[in-house]
Amino acid sequence: MTQIAHGKKRKAIILTMLLMLAMLVSACGVKTVGSSEPAGSGSGKVEPVTETSADQASDLKGKKIALVMEFNSGTFSQQYLAGVKEEVERFGGELTTFVAETDKSKMASQLEMAVNQKFDGILTDHGDAATLTAGMNKAKEANIPVVAFDALVEIPGITVIEQGDQKMAEMTLEQLAKDAGGKGNIVKIWTAGFAPMERRQVAYEQFLNTYPDIKEIAAFGSVSNSTALDTQAKMEAILKQYPKEGEITAVWASYDEFAKGAARAIQQAGRTDIKIYGIDMSDEDLQMLQNPASPWVASAAVDPKDIGRIQVRYLFQKLHGDQTEDKVILEPVYVHRDQLPADKQISTDELGEYVKGWGGSTQGEQDWMSEYSK
User: Fold this and answer.
1) In sequence order, which residues have a C-beta less than 8 Å from that of residue 66 and are 6 or more positions away?
2) Domains, the chain, ranges and CATH?
3) Contact 226/162 with Cβ under 8 angstroms?
């Protein structure tokens, strides 16, 4: 009887061990949603879920978001980044920022790195098709949603946000022509290779055709980690080429760092005969625009914080499972010194009190987002 009891006990132990082994083998063969590894080949680490269904969409908190920036120099980029951070925090996400320091190949590598690290969603800032296409396609294959800002990419399913660049250029160029009486000599500060610049150049070419008595006498521009300083030095050289009052009517600057550098050069040279018409707006830009001694008199822009916020909203729409457009155009506003108070310095947070349409955009906001505090 004792031997029979021992035999039964031994069989029970063996049966339990076999059952546990079967469960372990089965668990090792599970393929995690969003993982590119075949079943059974993983390390056992559970990867983040990157596909969202209606059932999963009720809670988006804890999503890991990557922001890949071509550069982050200048106050515009800093305020844009502040808007991104603010909105990611609103949704309870975690933001990691990669900065390529104007190196396009580095940006491409950083985008692929973000995909390989299996972020839940990816934002990109600037870059071009050659830089971004491979990484964005890889993100699509991994079911990682992507929203780009200011990039000439056309990939189905990738949402691209732009500022209405042609309209911004038209706003400032028309004011230049009006102030100049439809004639004069101008300097263009612009550079190729950036999506917003290419769109602004279209409006500039149309402008020259419309106003044949306005002549371009010089053109330059490059983006670096010291864009404003480089622009200032080049503008100083042009002022020496055209030292007489009236030889330069105005400067059209297609980017605020260009406008800042040119304004400092002109102001330091004591040239009160030259006006600057720029694009973009930040707190630092606004200080210069309000300064009556500055040649920078007008700019067209979208609130950089709003750009960041709106871009994040579209990414979280995708994470929520919503369908989003492939192209989103933001509405710019025109800002002239004459609209601003002369007795106090204001910030871009206060600019909406003086310029209709500035700041506080609700673009990209959805009803379900109300559960996430602002």
Assistant:
1) 95, 96, 97, 98, 114, 117, 119, 121, 122, 123
2) 58-163+305-331 (3.40.50.2300), 165-301 (3.40.50.2300)
3) no
Q: How far is 132 from 112, CA to CA, in rounded Å?
A: 9
pLDDT at 152: 87
Is residue 227 classed as helix, strand or coil in its secondary structure? Answer: helix
> pLDDT (tens digit, 9 = 90+) per residue, 274-299?
999 999 999 999 999 999 999 999 99
User: Is the separation of the CB atoms in 90 and 158 below 8 Å?
Assistant: no
Determine contact, residues 242/191, Cβ cutoff 8 Å: no
DSSP 8-state class, residue 37: S
Does 110 score more than 60 pLDDT? yes
Buried b (16+ CB within 10 A) or exposed e, 257-294: bbbbbbbbbbbeeebeebbbbbbbbbbbbbebbbeeeb
Record the tokens describing residue 341, joined without a space.
């108070």
| Residue with token string 């300097």 | 187
